[in-house]
Amino acid sequence: MKRYVIEREVPGFGANDDAGFCNAAKTSNAALSKLAPRVQWEHSYVVGNGTVCIYLAENETAIREHARLSGFPANKITEVVRMFDPTTAR
Question: Which InterPro entries match (predicted)?
């Protein structure tokens, strides 16, 4: 599986309350269950006018299929080519 960063433009999404985020997660999970094991959602960050999501997927096509099924746009999809963190300096 490859790791992807997905930028989603969803104006006003950050104004959701806990129930709104719960419903969004349920919607995403329902789409993921139809695509399993081809796509996995790791986590998302709410930013400005939308979200930045981290997913594992077979390919970009699977990410786009999740976007179609869930109704959440995938405005920009970028494959992660490598990870590094503070421990890389050792």
Answer: SCO4226-like (IPR025336)
Sequence ranges of the domains in the chain:
2-82
What architecture is the 2-82 domain classified under in CATH? Answer: 2-Layer Sandwich (3.30)
CA distances from 60 to 31, 45, 63, 65, 73 (A): 15, 20, 5, 9, 13
pLDDT beneath 70: ranges in the chain: none
Q: Where are the alpha helices (DSSP H) in 1-59?
A: 18-35
pTM here? 0.93
